[in-house]
C-alpha cells in the first residue's frame, strides 16, 4: 500500500545486477536527514494492455518457460524483446554483486552530517518522484562508475567550496584511507602545536616528581619528629605506696625518719657524717672521727630526714671505740631507730646501709654480712697513736662511702646491728674520712651494735667509756705469730702492771699470747681487738708460750677509762 512515504531501498532485498526492459533508473533525490529517496519503478503493461493500478505495488511477470525440444507441430515461442524474462524483481539501482558499493552505502559513523534547519523551521515537503509511463519505458542507462575518493587537503590549505557543499565527500569504504588523521570538521591540525598525549605525559611525569618529593619530606619529618600529633607514651597507673616490711624499701621507709646528717665545722677542718636517733630525748650515736673536727669550740648541725635542722652538742666520745654521742635540744617528734643484737647475725644475712655519702643525705644501699669478728684498726694520724681505734668489726659488701660513717647497718627487720665506720679502698686502705676520698670496693666494716650500745650508755651516763684490759704492755714491733708482751711499759715501768689481771694470772714479760678463748691470735692489734670485744669483768682463757712451753691461764678483765 502507498502510505504517502517515498520508497527507500531495503537492506534485505538486493536485486540482481541485470537490466530489465521497461524500467529506467531515476536519479536519487537528496533527503533532509542525509539519505536519498529512490524513485518508484515504472509499472509494466498488463497483458490486457492496461497500465495497472497505481497503489505502489506492481505485479511481476511469470518467468518464461525454458525452451525445450520443439514439439511436433508447434513452433517455438518467441522471447519478449528478444531476451528471457528475469526470475526476480528488476534492479533499479544497477548494483553489481561484487566490486565497488553502490549509492546505498551508509554514511560513516564518525562524520558529522550537514547542518539541519533550526528548531521550529518548517522543512520543505519531499516531492514524490513521478511515476514512469509506458511511453517513457526505455532501457535503463548504465550505472555510472563510482567517483574516486576526494583528496585530503594539505595542512593549512583552504577548503574548496565543493568540500563545504558536500561534507560527505561521497565516502567510499573500499577506497584507501586518507593519509591525514580523521577530523570532525575536515580541517588538518595546525602546524607546530604539541600533541595532547605528549602534553598529558609531561603533566603526569611532573606530578609524579612533585608527589615523590613531598612524600620524602613528609616521611623524613615523621621519622625524625615522631609524627604530627603529640606523643603520649604508655605508663603504669599508681600503686599503693606501702611495701612489705622485709623488703629494702620497707626497711628504708621505717628507718629513714630516725637517720640524720651531721655537718661539722671547726677551726681547722670540717666534715660530713651520719648518725641515728637513740631515744626521744635527742641523743644521737655516730663515729668519733665524725665529730672530732669540731674540737672544743666548733659547731655541729644536725639535719633530719624531714629537712629540719638543729644544733647539737657533744655528750661524750671515745677514740678507742671510734664512737661518740651528741644531743639536740628543743626538738620533738623524734623517731628512734630500734637496736638489734649483733650476736645473732650470721654470715650471709641481708643488711641495709643508710647514710650521706659525699653529702647525699638519705642514701640507701644493701648487701650482706660478708664476715664477723674481723679485726680492724683505723686512724693513727696522731703521733702518739691516741686516735687509733680497734674494732672487732662486721664486714659487709653493702656500699659504704665517705659520709656514711656513723650511719646504721640494719638487718632484715630494720633493726640496727652495726655502726658503719670504715672501708677498705684501693688507694688509701683505711678510714674513709682520712687521706683520699676513694669510694667503696665492697669492703665495708661496722662496729657491732652490742659494743656500741654499751659504749653509748656509758657516754650518756658518765661522759666517758671504759675499756677492758689485761694489764700488760705489748711489743707492737713483734713480727712473729702471736702477741708478745714487752719488756718495758710505755712510761718506762714494768710491762706487766703489778696487781693487774695479767700479773695475777702469772703472765710475764716476753710471753707470747697465741690464743684467746681458743681463737688464734696473730698480732698485738688482733689481741687488743679480741679483748675490747668483751666488757670489763669478763673472764678470758689465754694460751701462752714461754721458753718453748705452752701453758693456759685464766684471768678477769680489768677496766680503764678511755680518752
UniProtKB/TrEMBL annotation:
PANTHER family linked to this entry: PEPTIDASE S12, PROTEASE DO-LIKE 8, CHLOROPLASTIC
The protein's name in its UniProt record: PDZ domain-containing protein
InterPro entries (alphabetical): Chloro_Bact_Ser_Proteases, PDZ, PDZ_sf, Peptidase_S1_PA, Peptidase_S1C
Organism of derivation: Streptomyces ziwulingensis
Transmembrane segments: 200-222
Biased composition, class Low complexity, residue ranges: 48-65, 113-124
One matching Pfam family: Trypsin_2
Residue ranges with Basic and acidic residues bias: 82-91
Amino acid at each position: 500500500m502507498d502510505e504517502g512515504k517515498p520508497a527507500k531501498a531495503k537492506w534485505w532485498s538486493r536485486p540482481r545486477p541485470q537490466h530489465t526492459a521497461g524500467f529506467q533508473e531515476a536519479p536519487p533525490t537528496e533527503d533532509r536527514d542525509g539519505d536519498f529517496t529512490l524513485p518508484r519503478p515504472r509499472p509494466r503493461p498488463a497483458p490486457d494492455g492496461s497500465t495497472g493500478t497505481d497503489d505502489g505495488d506492481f505485479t511481476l511477470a511469470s518467468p518464461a518457460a525454458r525452451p525445450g525440444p520443439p514439439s511436433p507441430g508447434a513452433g517455438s515461442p518467441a522471447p519478449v524483446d528478444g531476451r528471457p524474462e528475469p526470475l526476480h524483481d528488476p534492479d533499479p539501482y544497477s548494483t553489481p554483486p561484487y566490486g565497488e558499493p553502490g549509492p546505498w552505502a551508509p554514511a560513516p559513523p564518525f562524520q558529522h552530517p550537514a547542518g539541519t534547519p533550526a528548531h521550529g523551521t518548517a522543512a520543505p515537503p519531499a516531492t514524490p518522484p513521478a511515476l514512469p509511463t509506458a511511453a517513457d519505458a526505455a532501457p535503463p542507462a548504465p550505472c555510472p562508475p563510482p567517483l574516486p575518493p576526494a583528496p585530503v587537503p594539505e595542512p593549512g590549505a583552504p577548503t574548496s567550496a565543493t568540500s563545504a557543499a558536500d561534507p560527505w565527500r561521497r565516502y567510499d569504504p573500499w577506497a584507501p584511507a586518507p593519509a591525514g588523521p580523521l577530523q570532525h570538521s575536515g580541517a588538518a591540525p595546525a602546524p607546530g602545536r604539541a600533541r595532547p598525549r605528549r602534553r598529558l605525559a609531561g603533566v603526569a611525569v611532573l606530578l609524579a616528581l612533585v608527589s615523590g618529593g613531598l612524600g620524602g619530606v613528609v616521611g623524613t619529618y615523621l621519622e625524625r619528629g615522631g609524627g604530627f600529633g603529640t606523643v603520649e607514651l604508655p605508663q603504669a597507673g599508681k600503686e599503693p605506696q606501702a611495701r612489705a616490711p622485709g623488703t629494702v624499701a620497707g626497711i628504708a621507709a621505717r628507718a629513714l625518719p630516725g637517720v640524720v646528717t651531721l655537718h661539722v665545722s671547726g677551726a681547722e677542718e670540717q666534715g660530713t657524717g651520719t648518725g641515728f636517733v637513740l631515744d626521744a630525748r635527742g641523743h644521737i650515736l655516730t663515729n668519733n672521727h665524725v665529730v672530732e673536727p669540731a674540737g672544743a669550740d666548733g659547731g655541729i648541725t644536725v639535719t633530719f630526714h624531714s629537712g629540719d635542722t638543729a644544733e647539737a652538742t657533744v655528750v661524750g666520745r671515745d677514740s678507742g671505740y671510734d664512737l661518740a654521742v651528741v644531743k639536740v635540744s628543743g626538738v620533738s617528734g623524734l623517731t628512734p631507730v630500734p637496736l638489734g643484737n649483733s650476736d645473732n647475725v650470721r654470715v650471709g644475712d641481708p643488711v641495709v646501709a643508710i647514710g650521706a655519702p659525699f653529702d647525699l643525705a638519705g642514701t640507701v644501699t644493701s648487701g650482706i654480712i660478708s664476715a664477723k669478728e674481723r679485726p680492724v684498726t683505723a686512724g693513727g694520724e696522731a703521733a702518739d697513736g691516741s686516735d687509733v681505734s680497734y674494732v672487732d668489726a662486721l664486714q659487709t659488701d653493702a656500699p659504704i662511702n665517705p659520709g656514711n660513717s656513723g650511719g646504721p647497718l640494719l638487718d632484715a627487720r630494720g633493726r640496727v646491728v652495726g655502726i658503719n665506720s670504715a672501708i677498705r679502698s684501693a688507694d688509701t686502705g683505711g678510714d674513709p674520712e682520712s687521706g683520699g676520698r676513694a669510694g667503696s670496693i665492697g669492703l665495708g666494716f661496722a662496729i657491732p651494735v652490742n659494743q656500741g650500745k654499751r659504749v653509748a650508755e656509758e657516754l650518756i651516763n658518765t661522759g666517758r667509756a671504759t675499756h677492758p684490759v689485761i694489764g700488760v704492755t705489748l711489743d707492737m714491733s713483734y713480727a712473729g705469730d702471736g702477741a708478745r708482751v714487752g719488756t718495758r711499759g710505755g712510761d718506762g715501768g714494768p710491762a706487766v702492771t703489778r696487781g693487774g689481771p695479767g700479773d695475777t694470772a702469772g703472765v710475764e714479760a716476753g710471753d707470747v699470747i697465741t690464743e684467746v678463748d681458743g681463737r688464734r691470735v696473730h698480732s698485738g692489734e688482733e689481741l687488743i681487738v679480741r679483748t675490747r670485744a668483751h666488757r670489763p669483768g669478763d673472764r678470758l682463757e689465754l694460751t701462752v708460750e714461754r721458753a718453748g712451753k705452752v701453758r693456759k691461764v685464766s684471768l678477769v678483765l680489768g677496766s680503764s677509762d678511755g680518752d
